[in-house]
Design goal:
about 140 residues, Alpha-Beta Plaits, 4-stranded antiparallel β-sheet, globular, binds adenosine-3',5'-cyclic-monophosphate, nucleoside diphosphate kinase activity
Length: about 140
């Protein structure tokens, strides 16, 4: 099934100069970039994006992190794009993520884990609509 998914290349990746290397991995996988923009995210946008995590103990630190500098938001499209991106990203916790994945190769933190990918087609539809309301 052709799907679209929302990816965030988070502030840690932007600060470390990894945007190009991360994008190259998605492109080499033949995922198509449908939309892409560098953004500064405020607390309200962070709360909307992470609404399911608002009550978690880690959320205040997560909000500080995602609002700490520019990030790159993009929409990728391809066959089973939601799960394909999650495989490329690797496990959430960089310390345990598989070598060969983005987090496995470049992250060593559970919070500063370089990328976000929608975790289901339903979440992808919501997140694409939130970040890129103009997309048809
Ligand atoms: P992401 O895929 O964007 O979805 C939720 C984010 O919360 C996750 O990546 C991490 O950045 C962060 N996160 C998840 N679990 C924890 C945790 N236990 N401690 C700190 N940050 C976390």
């Amino acid at each position: 099934t052709i799907e679209r998914t929302l990816v965030l290349i988070k502030p840690d990746a932007v600060k470390r100069g990894l945007v190009g290397e991360i994008l190259a991995r998605y492109e080499r996988k033949a995922l198509r970039i449908v939309a892409m923009e560098q953004r500064e995210v405020d607390a309200s946008m962070a709360d909307k994006h992470y609404h399911e995590h608002l009550d978690r103990d880690f959320y205040p630190a997560l909000r500080s992190f995602v609002t700490s500098g520019p990030l790159v938001a993009l929409v990728l499209e391809g066959d089973d794009a939601v799960s394909a991106v999650r495989l490329l990203n690797g496990a959430t916790d960089g310390r345990r993520a598989e070598p060969g994945s983005i987090r496995g190769d470049w992250a060593l933190s559970n919070r500063e884990n370089l990328v976000h990918g929608s975790d289901s087609p339903e979440a992808a539809a919501r997140e694409v609509g939130l970040w890129f309301p103009g997309l048809g």
